[in-house]
Predict the structure of Polysaccharide deacetylase family protein.
Amino acid sequence: MKNTFLISLLLVGIHLQCTEAQTIQERLGYNKNTKLLIVHADDLGVSHSENMASFEAIEKGMVTSASILVPAPWFSEVAAYAQSHSDADFGIHLCLNSEWKHYKWGAVSDPSQVASLLKKSGFFPDNGQWVAENADIQEMEQEMRTQIDRAIASGITPTHIDAHMMTAYRRADFVQVLLKISQEYKLPIGVDVKELKARYPELDFPEMISLDKLYGAGPEDYEKSLAEYYTTVLRGLAPGLNEILVHTAYDDAEMQAITVDHTNWGSDWRQQDFDFFTSDACKTILKEENIQLITWKAVQDQLMK
């Protein structure tokens, strides 16, 4: 009897070790050498152009997931699309900024209840540093929750959360709020959690999903060639759960007016993102490199039950 008990303990220990050793690919049902990739479009809701291009890139291109700016003016169009496309993979792009020159938005919450998040104009500030220096943490949490709740009430079933302009990663207490919201709403955070842990070692991180690598083009990549940057990323992709952040919109009069005086992540940049991730060249690279496209919904369904 004693030997049987010891053998049982040994088997349990071996099982736990095997489980802990599993890669995220294996936990999702893939071989450990699989290159998983989420192609993720940010900023849905910012404009009609952004919405239409992103919907097309999801339906006809290689974009597999997107996140929504709930406070932005064209949010209701995304909500209507989500209601008629139940398989669409949408997260909430938690927002504390309004970065464009003449095109602004403010809080979803009652402004009087989140005054520390708003400029005197009543809009969100254009940069994350202002938020980090001025935001009250209770008001920040209220606004984050209100944005998610507004999306759900509008018929959207969110699959993940992330942070617009990375602002909600700027303070340890901000991150603590995101961790709490992630656990309560069962929404993975679209971020490299290892980097957050390194930045905020004082925080107690629960066991949670983490991207192995998060890619996003910068101004220097745009100046050189976005297509070249994305090609290099795809050709060098390693096994694991990877994400490429893109911004898909048409370079039309609407986006040109919104992004005026804003070359970086502007209208032309967003058209180039759309062009690459709806191209035959991108499709060919994915096939040649044996890259498996995946959604945040698949991750959420399997790993956050």
